[in-house]
Amino acid sequence: MAASTDPRVLVINSGSSSLKFQLLAPADGTVEATGIVERVGQGQGNAAIEAGERESSFEGPVPDHKEAMKIVERLFGEVGLSLSDDRIRAVGHRVVQGGARYSNPVLIDEQVRWDIHDLGKLAPLHNYAAVDGIDGAQALLPDVPHVAVFDTAFFTALPEAAANYALNREIAKQYRVRRYGAHGTSHQFVSQAVSSHLASQGRDVSDLRQVVMHLGNGASASAVRGGEAVETSMGLTPLEGLVMGTRTGDIDPTIYIHLHRQAGFGPEEIDDILNKRSGMMGMCGMNDFRDITAAVEAGDEAATLAMDVYVHRLRKYLGSYSFVLGSLDVIAFTAGIGENVPMVREKLLTGLERFGIELDLEANAARSKEMRVISTPESEVTVMIVPTDEELSIARQASEVARQLAG
Ligand code: AMP
């Protein structure tokens, strides 16, 4: 437990229609307060905060993310905390799209704020919300460094062969079309945790080859070699790659044109179909894996097919990333599904013994919140579950930028 005088970082995660926040100690990860404002810009909103034993909530209109920050301030007051607390040494803002430029967390000045806004052309649902969240938070905490931590940063060094689409070169350049990836904070946090864990057991990790599977409602895979990302499944936007809660992942892009020509759907409608009405939800009417696994066990046909499509896609990525890496040392699972759904891991990894992967079925089925190995001692590839903690990672990165600034 951190002493109450230890520095704190406020982490702000502005999503398209939500704003999540957490006040925590970067040193040991102690969370002092956590909460969310939901349905931002959608008429009637709601918000809640939890701070140890104390809780509070709000219901009412939340027109934008600036206003959401004022509600956060109010909720803090209601649980006996204050945003003018001088223990708050930095604010870390999660920013989804940092383009090819931002490979590290940065102090937010006018130029950075302008760039985040400009990069909204690539991530309109997220970056404009992030700018509003930044403006709102800076108005409330004007004397504290605000740091942007980019979801794309870990992937800015992807090899050019992985980052480029085989699209017309001029068009790609003019419209900044390339593979930027997402979930980078999580992939970096997890791959570093794996390396540290294995290094502490005396293993040489200088060239460690990992496939990280971040399987949450949004899902992505990455290939990491010696700590550097060399491939990732999300592309220009988070749509590409794995099957997700409500997103298709990889599809033939001409399906878009087909739907336009045949059904007369416009861009907004197609965007909505591909991002919000497809994936597991679109295939079987459910996107919570607690419901999906129960339905599979009960023999539900749509859920079984959806699960098969989900796992098949994972296998394709695992196989291709192993070849991109040249060999494989570690498979690491993280996020809601990666950490909590044994059925997915078992279906994915059963029958891959010839490739050096031997899952320990008992360890795979055990429940735990800890980082752990779930492969057999004989398995050449180490299979691990590594709980991700994006807020802690953002808090640590923001705190480090603030420390250098104070320097
Ligand atoms: P995330 O986006 O990482 O928060 O993951 C959210 C998803 O993880 C949910 O939609 C569920 O499908 C899944 N999930 C979370 N907890 C569990 C659990 N205990 N059992 C099964 N699935 C879970």
Model description:
The chain is α/β, with parallel strands linked by helices and 407 residues long. It has helices spanning 65-78, 110-118, 124-140, 160-163, 169-174, 184-200, 254-263, 267-276, 279-284, 289-297, 301-325, 335-340, 342-349, 361-365, 390-406, and strands at residues 8-14, 19-24, 31-38, 44-51, 54-61, 88-95, 106-107, 146-150, 209-215, 219-225, 228-232, 330-334, 372-373, 382-385. A hairpin with a 3-residue loop joins β9 (209-215) and β10. The model has no long low-confidence stretch (mean pLDDT 96). Residues 216-217, 245, 287-290, 335-337, 340-341 line the site of adenosine monophosphate.
Bound molecules: adenosine monophosphate
Quote the average pLDDT: 96
Tell me which CATH architecture of the largest domain applies here: 2-Layer Sandwich
Specify the CATH homologous superfamily of the largest domain. ATPase, nucleotide binding domain
Helix content: 40-55%
Tell me the span between the first and last alpha carbons. 27 Å
The number of helical segments is 15
The CATH class name of the largest domain reads Alpha Beta
Shape: globular
* Secondary-structure class: alpha/beta
Number of domains: 2
Low-confidence region ranges = none
Q: Could you state the order of secondary-structure elements as H and E?
A: EEEEEHEEHHEHHHEEEHHHHHEHHHEEH
